[in-house]
User: Fold these one by one.
Assistant:
Number 1:
Amino acid sequence: MSLHAHVVADVGALHLDVRLHAAAGEVVAVLGPNGAGKTTLLRALAGLVPLSAGRVVLDGRVLEDPATASRRTAEDRDVGFVFQDHLLFPNLSVLDNVAFGLRCRGVRKGRAREIAAAWIGRVELASLAQARPGALSGGQAQRVALARALACSPALLLLDEPLAALDVQARQSMRRLLRRHLDAFGGPCVIVTHQPLEAIALADRLVIVEQGVVVQDGAAAEVARRPRSRWVARLVGLNLYRGTARDHTVALEGGGSLRTADAAGGEVFATVHPRAVALHPEAPRGSPRNAWRGTVAEIDLHGDHVRVHVEGPIPIVAEITPAGLADLSLSEGQPTWVSVKASAVDLFPR
């Protein structure tokens, strides 16, 4: 049981052109900035947004192929969808909400309720079976939506921001429960999220979508170690540059250059961890390194560390301690010197 999809769709100003595959039992997380097309992708897979081109094949069955005018309805796709805003029926009890999909598939009422009751127990809401959605917390409503999607034993599971709008405690509890059910689910699962920690905790593979296209696809460790766009680099906390390497120098696309410890050639990405960036009140001296003068553009406090955004010939983010910030007496708009050791510049091919 696997998913092979090439989704080409137009919604307003968005042109979506995404290739996506997921094996049986594999969880794929789709991340990207707002407006990238993540939710549109899920809705297209579910049959709620028509394709203008491409093809969707699930478990060997063609769900949609505009080239042959083939298109199964959403009801005929064997897909479970957990919407971000739950979309529970306010006039039905929790039990009947979960049984609804089964009833739509022709399961008799008594049997549908038996299956629904079992799933309500699995998501730890048995005591609320007769409650209405209006009496539920956000986390409880999300559990009901998950139970409703899984009760029909779908071939494909789609989850749109499953942990959004939950408080910290509810999010942790829901993440554990979701992980348990995803481990037991035999089909492919596609999750849309904007939270990298959630994606890493839940998914086997990450797919990064920007402006309607895939910019990176791989295991979380690989995406974090070798980001291929500025958005991904910010997501994982790295400074990323594109450039052309020659021996121990990388000429950057935006201007400026970086010296590297390792020799390389051709088009490359260069990354620098913010912790490897040093700030100085005056031009640094000592061992050979990259150094330039810039201006503090922004200072962000993050618990036990501070991120300092420096504009200049090479824009960069440095991570320092609050004590270091005080010692340097840094403030926004103030000039500062930046240094990065050649050995702290990591390269990988474009």
Number 2:
Amino acid sequence: MMKRILGLAFLACVAISAAAAASDPFVGDWKLNPSRSRLTDKMVVESAGGNKYTFDFGGGPETIVVDGTDQPTSLYGGGTLAVGKEGATWKVVRKSGGQTIISAIWSVSADGNTLTDRYTGFNAAGRPYNLLYTYKRTTPGAGFAGTWVSTSEKAVDFVLGIQLRPFQGDGLSIVDPSSQLMGDMDFAAPLVRRLDAHTVEFLRKKAGGELSDFLRLELSPDLKSLTITPHAVAGVEQHVFAFDRG
């Protein structure tokens, strides 16, 4: 479930090697403005026969037995994924290093067309934060199996914010206080373009040249608003994250 952009895990460890200093207009504290943001999410659940299911939360397929046990996965840096049935609901738990980083309770409406996800994330100190997602079914399926696209996301007990800080005098670090992560990720061949004083694009490509990550950061002319646009996901409306300077 690392696909959840509200957690901003993919932003948390990105160091952008572009010309920047303490006076860089990007530097500051930023608070998400939900009314100007577009946070559509997509996940796919497919039956793999018997009690096995394949889950794709945006980072690639993971096939496990739905029996509630922790099962190893190579995605999202490794760790385990567990999905278990609890009455009419499913409980989804992802762990890293033996520690729970994501827990969620899924339920499907009586007509089978709406999935509600009561999602709990944990920051580096182990403190939980809660989100409520609602998804609509977009392909035929039974129960939890199908393609689901979110229609709403609600932060239950926290305000999402990020921080931009200078990085080694000539870069920017994006910090996600909810997870207490910051700093540099060792990208083999990052491609960073500072288009102008108010616009930065960060790209990362796979060995074969295929685009794997993309972020566009753009400041408003008055420097009071920041828009972050990530890589588009097929079949999902383009995400837009709008922040106001804190």
Number 3:
Amino acid sequence: MRLSWALTDSVTLIGRNLRHLPRNIDSLLMAVILPVMLMLLFVYVFGGAINTGTEYVNYVVPGIILLCAGFGASMTAVSVANDMLNGIIDRFRSMPILSSAVLTGHVVASLVRNALSTALVIGVAFLAGFRPTATWLEWLAAVAVLALFVSAISWVSVCLGLIAKSQDAASGFTFAFAFLPYVSSAFVPTDTMPVVLHAFAENQPITPVIETLRGLLLGTPIGNSAWLAIAWFGGILVASYVLAAYLFKRRTTR
């Protein structure tokens, strides 16, 4: 009975958040337009000067996909902060609704939003010359890795939205999501960086995800990147989920 109750509440609040997507079409378009513009900038302006051993558009697309997800994460933080500040949570508390379903609704909406924006970005990438060599099984594996990444940063965004005192602060807190891909193997090989930046880029969580996606889609060596990506973002997912539950309970308990 409790499982059925939790499922019903989650589906209801997921539907609520999905219905909000068309109302924020400007934010959704921005989450797509910015990564697309960056991809076109790097491919057509900087790509000719960057030697990656392959067509630059193929090299850069995995990083752009993660960058797109990072921009989408800011929308999740803002949505959570908006719910916490506009009084809707107090209305939910007066109803027989499972509290965790409120946050789950935001995360699933984030996954759907990121799936739409990522599909559009990949479509533009094909027009720009992106030519993956992946089989359908490798595409499925890439989708699974990307889903883990988006789920993890979505729960982190939920935490930031719960901490933020305003929507502007929630958006600002997610700046790191948009910044980290720049100091990784997303746009240039890490061995071209200065020593300190090289060490950081090689050991931060974004790089193994990019190398895993690049290996699955383009057939480059993956090595231990897949396991590192799963370890990093599996751990981040669990930790941020627990923290989000704690923060939500703390902010809604009087």
Number 4:
Amino acid sequence: MATEDWQATNRALWEERVAVHLAPGGYDLAALRAGSGALDPLVEAVLGEVAGLRVLHLQCHIGHETLALAQRGAAVVGLDFSAAAVAAARGLAEELGLAARFVEADLYAAPTAIPEPASFDQVLVTWGALPWLPDIRGWARIVAWFLKPGGRLVLAEQHPAALVFDDAAGTADRPGWLVPYFEAAPVVLEATEDYANPAANLTATRETTWMHPLSAVIGALIDAGLRLERFEEHPRIPWRMFRGLTRDAEGLWAWPDRPWLPLGYTLVCAKG
């Protein structure tokens, strides 16, 4: 079960990873610094044209994807609960000379931190965001609250079917069972490796996450007043989620022989 300090331990985990992701072996920011920042191919396939749009990136971490959109002419706002991540994002924006706003706040406090209802053309949520949230219906209501009529949510996320498995419970080339797909209780683990740099020496390792089946995510968005426009499952993902995955020509990680189970999904919803 989750302890009362799950928010503090999760925040400590992400605070520590900011330095890891900015250091050599972490995130590759070369293209962003060269003025040609891009998101991964799965997100790019559903993102659409952003020039002239007002975009809110929830759980933006160090803001590298947020700033890639600013380079394309979007007016961007990024939100994250980590002070270190927000500071890093602001530093990158200043370094690159990009107009971007970054706000430090918990996701569920976003409407108070950014009191601008129905003011964004797009809300962006990318990779590894939803499992950290206990209340998926509350998240969906917040997304809808921020979107203008006709505005779009673009979501790219780990597939919950893949989150059933874990390397530690499996073999050298196949993960094993970790948690039931419909698990309602918090999932508390010790994260011994960083997903971007497995060689990093971590001290904040306790993580508390939640399983959100696809039906829960899509149902929450529909109930919040959004209309599903596009949904796709993917046998590839932008990071090495399991050690048995291999990198393909586009830089994504996939099963080496057959697409055994989906690793990610993308969806687009519109308001109204």
